[in-house]
Amino acid sequence: GAGGDSPMGRQKAIPGIKTIIAVASGKGGVGKSTTALNLALGLRDLGLKTGLLDADIYGPSVPRLTGLKEMPKLTDDKKMIPLQRFGLTLMSIGFLVAEETAMIWRGPMIQSAVKQMLQDVAWGELDVLVVDMPPGTGDVQLSLAQHVPLAGAVIVSTPQDLALIDARRGITMFKKVDVPTLGIIENMSYFLCPHCNTRSDIFGHGGARHEAERLGVPFLGEIPLDIAIREGSDEGRPVLESDPSGKYAEIYRAIAEKI
Ligand code: ADP
């Protein structure tokens, strides 16, 4: 259509949303969704009106991470009204269908579902929308990266070699569709013992920083492997909200400032 398309002619801007950022990972289980939510909260703490779109169709985690399960209501013109929690505007395929249903969807269905969640949702005015992408770098991810008007992508990796190789694939994928990589976050960077507060580099801490330097993309920060992060996300209370020390608020705000 006129006006909203990017120069490439395929990406429609979403009215009211200033910037869309993807959070991606080369593979599952590295803490992408947890990081996407906490990063969104970090952006909120910078005073930005922030939304989170859970496009991780294979395993939508926003319902679990936020404790929200309600079905979104519709506006008069049949747009879905996103849910609100922790000052964030939230939409997830998990609000609409059972997890098992979404898991068996195929590429084109995933794309049209994500497209609907972008275009048929009354997002309101947002400074930034964080999109939690499905893990991996296959066709579905590539085509999503192509169809969502992304300003940039943040890659989440653990310090392990394999995860880093996958992270590299992610950066290559975004490059292919002209989406700049805003940087790499190292999650599960080191282990923080809840009893003695000693730090151990279980997966060989620092791998992502080296990889980022090698690839010439920014290194955004490291997040420890901490039981408080796991417990918080399973209870629907992100660590940023539940940690009394404010340590995590600082860590994620620092990352948010860099992107
Ligand atoms: P992904 O989206 O990459 O599949 P998730 O965000 O769902 O990963 O995280 C996978 C599991 O690891 C979840 O149980 C989550 O609570 C846990 N987790 C993620 N990051 C951390 C961390 N830094 N410390 C402890 N547990 C974590």
TrEMBL record:
Key words of the record: ATP-binding, Hydrolase, Iron, Iron-sulfur, Metal-binding, Nucleotide-binding
One example GO MF annotation: ATP binding
Role, per record: Binds and transfers iron-sulfur (Fe-S) clusters to target apoproteins. Can hydrolyze ATP.
Homology family: In the N-terminal section; belongs to the MIP18 family.
Quaternary organization: Homodimer.
Record-given protein name: Iron-sulfur cluster carrier protein
Residues bound to ATP: 26-33
Protein origin, superkingdom: Bacteria
Biological classification of the source: Bacteria, Pseudomonadati, Pseudomonadota, Alphaproteobacteria, Hyphomicrobiales
